[in-house]
Amino acid sequence: MPETRFLTDLGLLFLAALGGGLLAQAVHQPLIVGYILAGVLIGPFTPGPTLSDPHTFQLFADVGVVLLMFTIGVEFSVEELLRVRKVALLGAPAGIALVALLTIPVGKLLGWTLVQSLVAGAAVSVASTMVLLKFLLERGELATLYGRVVVGITLAEDLAVVAMTVLIPALASPGGDRAAALGQALLEAVVLLGPLLWLARRAVPLLLAKVAHTRNMELFLLVALAVAIGTAALTAGLGLSIALGAFLAGLVISESEFAHEALARVLPVRDIFVAIFFVSIGTLIRPASLLAEWPAVLALVLLVIAGKFAVWTLVVRAAGYPVATARNAALGLTQIGEFSYILAGVGRNHGLLPSSMYDAVLATSLVTILINALVFRRRPTWVQRLVSGQETVPPPAAAAVAPEVQVTVCGFGRVGREVADALDAFHILYTVVDLDPEATREARSRGAGAVFGDAGSEGMLHHAGVDRALLAVVAIPEFEAARRCVTALRALRPDLPILVRVHQQRHRAELSGAGATEVVQPEVEAALTIVRHSLDLLGIDHRLARRYMEGARAHWPEAARAEGVSGDALQAMEVVVQDPALEGQSIEQAHIRERSGAAIVSITRADGREIVNPRPDERLQAGDRLLAIGTREQLDSLRHICEKEVDPYVPG
């Protein structure tokens, strides 16, 4: 049955993607490589398990392209582009054009036509953003001078890919009509999409705001996907590129306050379809054809490695950057990936590239990514010598330094607002992360930073500036959401102090295990406040009342920072009961807590039996070993009580 065959193929495709991804991860290579190799293995041109109809999954691959370009649009940062405007806005187009021109003499040697050479040159002129950013993050060099230059160039390349998906089909026109076709394609894109973009910029944010107010994230995801796929379908219906429509849809959403949450929701879906995209590309590769086309593969690999390195070194150097910066940036750009597949695919679909050249571009991508991983990411000694030097010149038109975020407040309900009131009173800068648009709007009205999104997402927290924060306060009432938030905070900042509220004591250990520095239970604080006021109204001696409160709080160590409690660090100590006067008395009768302030957490009898969290009526025996928690002064007082004969304690 067709349905059964489709499900079998889908299962095989996902298993292949999983296997290829695990293999790539095991050998420390980008997942893209594993996905494509997995596709080759299940394709019709290799023995073994095979998809019965690989072309069925080309539709899934198209969805992957749409979601990839949509997320590129959402993430697109004009600010980042302007930080390195000279090299990005002037240098990047020049670099792309130079690489495309270098492909022409290479194509002549291989017998390609001028159009084939230009399309192949366009495909190899842009680097893989996924691979490049992953390598920069792994090396911790995204914020370096050359890292910022590379990010600016890749942003410009993103724009170039969108433009080239519109222009490449025009090359299919007869020779004399190509210039007119190129102009017509650009004019159609502007005329048809201009009004659409104007309308979308007004309608889409309103729609997102309506859905965000429901706090139903399933609907929010559906709206984001509908905008992405719907816009791509509309541009395809107008005869334009689906990549162009998806990118513009992302740009529209990027201008709203909901952009980061939309991106976080779409990314997992995108990753699934992008994996299908790469696997489906692998199924189209003919290994036998690659062997026959080895001269083309070798020539393109040399062009990408040597040619692009020379071109981008010259371009970055001409923009006024140091030699070390230029060489480091050029080294990172010597690979091709997902955008090359898209551009080569556009050329093949319009009859501009034969299948053999398309396969050669795919093979070049695999080889250059592997070489880039060895050379750029691993940095052998000879490479380090090549790119060594000082990055002493700041980037042109550097952006002003953003205000230092001191506190990240996750959750802006009643508790979060009380925390914000105190921070406002002391003029402490903070940023709020919340899924309620009204809450983020109020935070902005206070002059604070605000991010609409899930505080359990590392991306949201990173955007909120948690990497610069001195403290994080998690005031989210729902336990599971709070736990995810603490986990994400601790993953991003192992050194960050994290304060978190909790309603039930049974959740305290989980939050502490997730990485919370201190856990505060409002109900406990309320109860202790009532006890303190009650003792005061009953006329209990203040010294005795304070000792009692300290002992009560010792069962909840995080409460020790409350007003009137010693700020000394809590310690644990084992004390042996030696005073005969204590034998036979209960903990309550001996007034251990009132006399010392320390809390007994366990008793170990002389026979080895242990009593954990002993009750107040538990009777003491000679030789008992008491494990107690308290400050150094409190523990010393407890030891004095237990080990020496002292006067009987008389309350009042």
UniProtKB/TrEMBL annotation:
It is found in: Membrane. The keyword Transmembrane applies. It comes from the Bacteria. SUPFAM superfamilies: NAD(P)-binding Rossmann-fold domains, TrkA C-terminal domain-like. GO terms for molecular function: antiporter activity; monoatomic cation transmembrane transporter activity. Residues 560-644 form the RCK C-terminal domain. One of its GO terms (biological process) is proton transmembrane transport. InterPro entries: Cation/H_exchanger_TM (IPR006153), Na+/solute_symporter_sf (IPR038770), NAD(P)-bd_dom_sf (IPR036291), RCK_C (IPR006037), RCK_C_sf (IPR036721), RCK_N (IPR003148). The chain crosses the membrane at residues 6-24, 31-47, 59-78, 87-106, 118-137, 149-172, 178-199, 219-252, 272-289, 296-315, 357-376. It is a multi-pass membrane protein. Keywords: Membrane, Transmembrane, Transmembrane helix, Transport. PANTHER family: SODIUM/HYDROGEN EXCHANGER FAMILY/TRKA DOMAIN PROTEIN, SODIUM_GLUTAMATE SYMPORTER. Belongs to the monovalent cation:proton antiporter 2 (CPA2) transporter (TC 2.A.37) family. This is Sodium:proton exchanger.
